[in-house]
Amino acid sequence: MLFRSSAAVCGALAALAVFVTVARSEERGVHSSAVVNAASGDAIVGAASTYNPFKPGKEEGGPSTASGERYDPSVWAAAIKTSLRRKFGGVQFGARPKYALVEAVGKKVIVKINDVGPLRPGRIIDLNERTMRYFDPSLDLGVINDVKVSPLAGDYWVPGPVG
Q1: Whether 158 contacts 19, CB under 8 Å
Q2: 3-state DSSP call for residue 34?
Q3: Residues whose CB falls within 8 Å of the CB of residue 93, separated by 6 or more in sequence, listed in order
Q4: pLDDT of 90-123, one tens digit each?
Q5: Is the CB of residue 44 less than 8 Å from the CB of residue 146?
Q6: Could you say which residues form the signal peptide (predicted)?
Q7: Residue 39 burial (CB count, 10 A)
Q8: Domain boundaries, the chain
Q9: What is the β-pairing status of strands 44-50 and 123-127?
Q10: How far is Cα 159 from Cα 86, in angstroms, rounded to an integer?
């Protein structure tokens, strides 16, 4: 009995340590610059816009993303242009999320690609509110040109700023 209790406490402490480490790395935006070297495939350059299906007047999307997750404006996420779905590993309902490195205005961030959409001409990615605010804190721009998006290999990335 004592052994089982000790094992349970030990397991809970280990899970807490992992959670705190991940939370701290996302909070501080701590990523090795080696992430740039992990980009798989060719980068795509185009315009980025923002979306939030819960705001009045938005015609695109809905509360559920292509991966089946609900849209969340507080995470580091984005929707890729439908024609780029295959390049970014499929982005399918119930599948593990895909990740990309997004670079613009001298900043870099890892985003979870959990949605696709028929974006307006010239646009390659729709960033959720948190991600767009990283590049454009006031959301005044609406569209950011010359954004570079590179698919990342693997599914172990922690979304957030690359520092």
Answers
A1: no
A2: helix
A3: 66, 67, 68
A4: 776 766 778 999 999 999 999 999 888 888 888 9
A5: no
A6: none
A7: 17
A8: 1-30, 33-161
A9: parallel
A10: 21
Per the structure block, which two tokens stand in for 118?
Answer: 């028929």
**Terminal-residue alpha carbon distance, the chain:** 47
Give the architecture-level CATH label for domain 33-161.
Beta Barrel (2.40)
Q: What is each CA distance from 106 to 55, 84, 148, in whole angstroms?
A: 29, 24, 11
Joined together, the tokens standing for residue 58 give: 């938005």
Q: Which amino acid belongs to residue 141?
A: L
Residue 25, CB half-sphere, CA atoms under 13 Å: how many? 14
Question: Under 8 Å CB-to-CB from 88, ≥6 apart: which residues?
Answer: 80, 98, 100, 113, 151
Going by C-alpha positions, the residue among 50, 56, 55 that lies closest to residue 128 is 50
Contact 65, 105 (CB under 8 A): no
